[in-house]
Amino acid sequence: MVKLKVGISSCLMGDEVRFDGGHKKSAFCVDELSRHIELVRFCPEVGIGMPVPRPTIRLEQHDDVQAVVPKTGENVTSQLAAFADKVQVKVEQLSGYILCAKSPSCGIERVKLYDPETGHEQKAGMGIFAARLKEKNPALPLEEDGRLNDPHLRENFVMRVYVFSQWKEMTQKLSKHQLLQFHQRCKLLLLAHNQQRYRELGKRLGEQESIDSAFAEQYIIDVMDALSKPASRKNHTNVLQHIQGYFKADLAHERREELSDIILQYHDGILPLMSPLTLIRHYLREFPKEYLEGQWYLTPYPDDLKLRYGL
Ligand code: SF4
């Protein structure tokens, strides 16, 4: 089976490419994620020809944000943005991107931004490469290495990567039928993350007579945005109870009660999400239902990644 691809800052793979000759190896990415996903590494600073080790770069607020080497005064902003343009063909093959936090090239948020006059800093910048990457690929799931240590954010990122990979597998010229099928398979995931957005997107889709590339592009940007915040326990509970309804006619009273009880124990924080999901999946094998089997909510990514154990 062809692995899906996710981009990554080279230093997170353990490559000694940082300004000080070190790395920032991410054990989760290297040891766990790479078993299922091909991680495609890029180092923008090495990519523009800077040596290892090298003088540090910092972000400065001029008319716009610039990446400057304070030691030499060299401005590398346009080179870093051009590197993102250069690798865009490869980025288009990716279903997500993991970036190294705090870097003036790769950081997504809260990168130190300096006032060149006073030297004062505030954590308000975005790395030049990361900013260009986001601008050119607005639907691509992005995440920073540090945030992946949070089980909710980690699960959320990997789930988005797998949903986006499903989108990329569809043909370039999408029909309304394909888009409706995609929307249908996302339904429970979207409901768990943002019910209102799910309904808005469905309405927009229903009203659209024919699908053009601009509509499809905006649709997937909005879907990925709706999925970008981890689902709350309350919303998961609503979705689980909704699923439970599909087994009403199949389960005897005690088994229905048992499922209700396990869902409520999840709601109260006594059991992890995997408990009701495991039971539901068991019932689904016993009483197959095409609609539920098609829902990515039930199996968004390989179980082996163990992402829902901590939720
Ligand atoms: S943060 Fe980005 S630019 Fe810096 S070493 Fe890592 S990959 Fe290279």
Mind sketching the topology for me?
Layout (H helix, E strand, L loop, with lengths): L3 E6 L17 H6 L4 E6 L1 H4 L10 E4 L3 E5 L4 E2 L1 H10 L1 H4 L5 E3 L11 E4 L6 E5 L2 H9 L5 E3 L6 H19 L6 H18 L1 H13 L5 H14 L6 H13 L7 H15 L6 H13 L3 H4 L18
Parallel strand pairs: 1-2, 1-6, 3-7, 6-9
Antiparallel strand pairs: 3-4, 4-5, 7-8
The protein binds iron/sulfur cluster.
Pfam families: 2-thiour_desulf, DUF1722
InterPro entries: 2-thiour_desulf, DUF1722, UCP037004
Question: What's this, in brief?
Answer:
This protein is an alpha/beta fold and 311 residues long. The protein contains 13 helices and 9 strands. Strand 3 and strand 4 (65-69) form a beta hairpin.
Description of the molecule:
The strands form two sheets. A five-stranded mixed sheet has the order 5-4-3-7-8. Strands 2-1-6-9 form a four-stranded parallel sheet. The radius of gyration is 22 Å and the shape is elongated. 46% of the residues lie in helices and 12% in strands. The protein has 13 helices and nine strands. It folds into two domains: 4-55 and 71-109 and 127-149, Rossmann fold; 150-311, no CATH class. It has 311 residues and is α/β, with parallel strands linked by helices. A hairpin with a 3-residue loop joins β3 (58-61) and β4 (65-69). It has helices at residues 27-32, 44-47, 77-86, 88-91, 128-136, 151-169, 176-193, 195-207, 213-226, 233-245, 253-267, 274-286, 290-293, and strands at residues 4-9, 37-42, 58-61, 65-69, 74-75, 97-99, 111-114, 121-125, 142-144. The longest helix has 19 residues, at 151-169. The two termini are 29 Å apart. The structure holds iron/sulfur cluster (SF4). Iron/sulfur cluster (SF4) is lined by residues 9-11, 17-18, 43-45, 100, 103, 105-106. Residues 187-302 form the DUF1722 domain. Pfam families: 2-thiour_desulf (PF04463), DUF1722 (PF08349).
